Amino acid sequence: QVQLVESGGGLVQAGGSLRLSCAASGDTFSNYRMGWFRQAPGKEREFVVSLSRVGITTYYADAVKGRFTISRDNAKNTVYLQMNSLKPEDTAVYYCAASQILSARSMSTLSPAGNGMEYWGKGTLVTVSS
């Protein structure tokens, strides 16, 4: 099993940037494909981005493409989400999730979003003010 802990959330003005981190422990991090999901108040959870085990293959939701970048450092057991040009509609709790079974591509098409991911962090709140 892997344990996931997100950090880096906070309040930022529209147009600003944040970098989220997700630290993994408890198992070999490189065995897991990683994803970020988010859930805005009153809305369903949605897919943000996923990443392959070696960090080469990525899939982005259209809403964040060109603004967000996912990366991982397997030596540090950490996955990152760099968020630039933030918009008020990016306001949400952001969750890191891991899977040994699902591919990065399939993570992007789960319905409901995130259904089937094996491990989840508790989330970090991102608030973007206008």
Could you describe the 3D structure shown?
The protein has 130 residues and is mainly beta. The protein has one helix spanning 104-107; strands at residues 3-7, 10-13, 18-25, 33-39, 46-51, 58-60, 68-73, 78-83, 92-99, 119-120, 124-129. The strands form 2 sheets. Strands 2, 4, 5, 6, 9, 10 and 11 form a 7-stranded mixed β-sheet that branches. The relative contact order is 0.31. The mean pLDDT is 97.
Main β-sheet, in a few words? 7 strands, mixed
Mean pLDDT: 97
What coarse outline follows from CA principal-axis ratios? globular
Low-confidence runs of at least 5 consecutive residues: none
Strand residue percentage: over 45%
Q: Gyration radius, to the nearest Å?
A: 13 Å
Cα(first) to Cα(last) distance is 40 Å
Strands, count: 11
Number of helical segments with 4 or more residues = 1
Which structural category fits the helices and strands? mainly beta
SSE string:
EEEEEEEEEHEE
Binned, the helix content reads under 10%
Secondary structure layout plus pairing:
Elements: E1 3-7, E2 10-13, E3 18-25, E4 33-39, E5 46-51, E6 58-60, E7 68-73, E8 78-83, E9 92-99, H1 104-107, E10 119-120, E11 124-129
Parallel strand pairs: 2-11
Antiparallel strand pairs: 1-3, 3-8, 4-5, 4-9, 5-6, 7-8, 9-10, 9-11
List keywords for this structure.
4-stranded antiparallel beta sheet; 130 residues; 7-stranded mixed beta sheet; mainly beta
